[in-house]
Amino acid sequence: MLSDAFDYLTDGSSWSGPQGIGAYLGQQLLLTAAALLLSAAIGLPLALWLGHRGRGGTLAVNVSNIGRAIPVFAVLLVLALGPVGSEQLGPFGRAGLATLIALVLFSLPPIITNAYVGVREVDRDVVEASRGMGMREWQVFRTVELPLAFPVVMTGLRLALVQVWATATIAALVAGPGLGRIITAGFANQRTSQVFAGALLVAIGALILEGLSVLAERRLDPMRVAKRQRS
Amino acid sequence: MTVSADGVSDPPETPQCYLDNTWWCAPYWADRQEELVDGTLQHVLLTVVSVGIGLLLAFALALLARRFSPLENAIVGATTIIYTIPSLAMFSLLLPLTGVSATTVVIGLALYSLTILLRNILAGLRAVPEDVRESAIGLGHGPTRLLFKVELPLALPVIMAGLRVATVSTVALVTIGSIVDNGGLGNLLLEAVGSEFKAQILAASVLCVLLAIVFDLSIVGLQRVLTPWTRTGRS
Q1: What digits encode the pLDDT tens for the residues A71-101?
Q2: Chain B residue with minimal CA distance to A2?
Q3: Residue A170: its chain B contacts at CB < 8 A?
Q4: How far apart, in whole angstroms, are the C-alpha atoms of residue B37 and residue A131?
Q5: A74–B208: do the CB atoms touch at under 8 Å?
Q6: What backbone torsions phi and psi does residue B25 show, to the nearest 5 degrees?
Q7: pLDDT, position A92
Q8: How far apart, in whole angstroms, are the C-alpha atoms of residue A116 and residue A50?
Q9: Residues of chain B contacting A192 with CB distance shorter than 8 Å
Q10: Could you report the predicted ipTM of this complex, rounded to two decimals?
């Protein structure tokens, strides 16, 4: 079983072609990146602003938490057959667009929660002190709150990234793009080794993405950068 | 689904919404009532059993991590890795071990809820003030009584918050169990994919969301009953 899966993964022919691992991997990466960028573009400004104001955030967090209760599978089906999207829209048609929307909805809760909580939990004395020094609101946010909240905000993005990557496999259930297709094709042909290989690919991909984003977070953290520059 | 030009349709007459394949179809809810009830019951059962096992395991692991603190990072790290495995992949990976069965779904979902619950149990226990712990010991509480009478009750709000997230996400994830034929309402969803049976998709989706809301509200209610002291002194 394990060796069959290994044979499948090391066989060059299973990587090439439009139904190959390579193509599905590319689709999954594209989907993940697009979904994460979109939900960061929607969620981050809103949550950071609410965090800075210190009001209305609980409501935003609760509303976005509804996203957790809605099964991605169901959203995917409703959207795939629903009024939005067309055969032409986006590189992967209706199923691709439906997956993208479902993934954006799904990744908003961790991004919004962490960005809001991160800014909110910055030491209020520090914020007041910077106001006392004559900083404008924008400067307070830009030079004090954001650098201090950075690790928490990034943790939210990292959580969202791994969840989106993992959940993107579900697109295969509506014949959408991504690595899930290897798993569902394996199921359809009763080839357990292929199912196993597909699952392994997705899991390893998730771990690699997690590792890369931890590294990126360390590199980019303004507090760490400042410390490095000082020493 | 189309009707031929001469208007032949099955006797007894098929409701128009089946023929038009509309999202809302009242006759569907009546015709397939049994199927919907069975799906919902299986959904509830899978959720309760998975979260229940996850809670027991998380509790045991949390106690272990507290007892032998060097283990804590390893245990939390290992459960985080579990969380990065996608549900579709998780069920597939378990397939060779447990086959096409409810056990596959329960093990997978219990492992997911374990991750969320473990973190919250540890965080909740850690937040118990040291003074309170010392006073309890001073009053002669043994380790077991300290845990059950003092620490756990104080940690309950944080643990319950984790239980809410774990339960609600489990309700959503049960649907993926349909790939091994045990997905509760998800079975109805998967069945409707091929035929694009919209009424069934809407019915199963709505029931799924309702189920998540009912579970969430019940846990909130349970928490209010279990922690009456959090309500006193506030108006």
Answers
A1: 888 888 888 776 654 555 555 667 788 888 8
A2: B96
A3: 86-88, 176
A4: 59
A5: yes
A6: -145, 100
A7: 64
A8: 7
A9: 95-96
A10: 0.74
Task: Report all structural domains of chain A as residue ranges with CATH numbers, in order of start.
Answer: 2-9+18-230 (1.10.3720.10)
Q: Note whether A209 and A168 are within 8 A (CB).
A: no
Omega before B11 cis (within 30°)?
no
Contact A174 B193 (CB under 8 A): yes
pLDDT (tens digit per residue) in A102-151: 889 888 888 988 898 888 888 888 988 999 999 998 899 988 998 999 98
Q: Does B96 touch chain A (CB under 8 A)?
A: yes
Q: Which domains occur in chain B, in start order? A: 49-172 (1.10.3720.10)
Query: Who contacts B183 (Cβ-Cβ below 8 Å, separation ≥6)?
Result: B43, B105, B174, B175, B176, B177, B189, B190
Q: pTM of this prediction?
A: 0.80
Yes or no, beta carbons of A196 and B95 under 8 Å apart: yes
User: Which residues have a Cβ under 8 Å from the Cβ of B127 and sit 6 or more positions away?
Assistant: B154, B155, B158
- Yes or no: say if B149 and B37 are a contact pair by the CB < 8 Å rule: no
Considering only CB atoms, B172 lies closest to which of A71, A78, A173, namely A71
Look-up of token digits 């949550």: A47
Write the CB contacts of A104 (distance below 8 Å, at least 6 apart in sequence): A35, A38, A39, A42
- Encode pLDDT of A161-207 as tens digits: 988 998 888 888 877 788 888 888 888 887 888 888 888 888 889 88
Q: Cβ atoms within 10 A of the Cβ of B218, count?
A: 12
